[in-house]
Amino acid sequence: MPFVNIKITREGSAPGRSAATAEEKAALIKGVSQLLLDVLGKPMDSTFVAIDEVELENWGWGGLPVPEYRKQQPSKQK
């Protein structure tokens, strides 16, 4: 019984809106389940998928909160 946990950030979303719509989340669940069937032969009816949305202030990168890490990075040239 596979269990897949997808974590997505809410960054870039409007206040009060999830990072992904219900339709987008359904597509993620279906796609991951299909991938496990195609690659590993795991039946879709025994695959569990959980999606966690993470607020920007609840994750870090390089030992720092993400906003602090980004302040230390050189700006990207367009």
UniProtKB/TrEMBL annotation:
Residues 2-66 form the 4-oxalocrotonate tautomerase-like domain. Its EC number is 5.3.2.-. InterPro entries: 4-OT, 4-OT-like_dom, Tautomerase/MIF_sf. It comes from the Bacteria. Pfam families: Tautomerase (PF01361). Keywords: Isomerase. The keyword Isomerase applies. NCBIfam families: taut. Belongs to the 4-oxalocrotonate tautomerase family. PANTHER family: 2-HYDROXYMUCONATE TAUTOMERASE, TAUTOMERASE-RELATED. This is Tautomerase.
